[in-house]
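thought: fold this chain, then report.
action: predict
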Amino acid sequence: MTQRFAIGPRETATLNTNGIREHFLIENIFTAGEIELTYTHYDRMIVGGAQPTGAALTLPCPESLKANFFLERRELGALNVGGAGTITVDGTVYELGNQDCLYVGMGSKEVAFASVDAANPAKFYLLSSPAHAVHPTTRRTQAEATPVEMGAMETANERTIYKYIYQEGIQSCQLVMGLTQLKPGNVWNTMPSHTHDRRMEAYLYFNLPQGQRVLHLLGEPTETRPLWVSNEQAILSPPWSIHTGCGSSNYAFIWGMAGENREYTDMDAVPLDALR
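observation:
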């Protein structure tokens, strides 16, 4: 498990392209036959991915957690962006198709990830945050995640939002998780942009066609910085930073948050004319 330390807006404003990528971009989320984990010091969120091919992959407990097992003091969200798979939690098997989600509650000791077909492996995107209470392990399919339509074709941001783990959905301590799918011909996400000083956010861009890219914007509203992102790469967004992007084609992204609350609407809008 690698680590990313938190930095503030003043430091970020001095970074060149390599520095921005080093601090905020996670390039390797999915590796065949492995579990990749990145520990961030933004609200102690862990961002990772599990791509089982042959044998099932068991969630490890890195030494740096100083815990007896990974979820001793944590909760976990897993959202599948690959082929059909299963997650086994303390002997109970949960089936997850593409864009289905599983919340795993604090205290779960053994978590294993498997693919139904190794030739079309599941890709479980993982988010984990500290927890202080036990909530039941719960599966929610994409069909059960009531879609919300937002944006318009005229502003190139027509999109469908699916919410899984949030205040009115799967219950958690502080983890919030869902995904957004842009419609064909639309390229802007989270526009107009916003910040939410009460929690951090992580993005995983996926379903981006071969050779296409997303230009992700971060930083303070008056001190923005660009970052080019490829398919199945993740962005760390500090609480003080905007997070918005424009693609060279339509795409999807998973958003996940941790911090003071689980209210999806807790955000501070930034007017377009305020951006610099």
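thought: worth noting. The radius of gyration is 18 Å.
final: tokens above.
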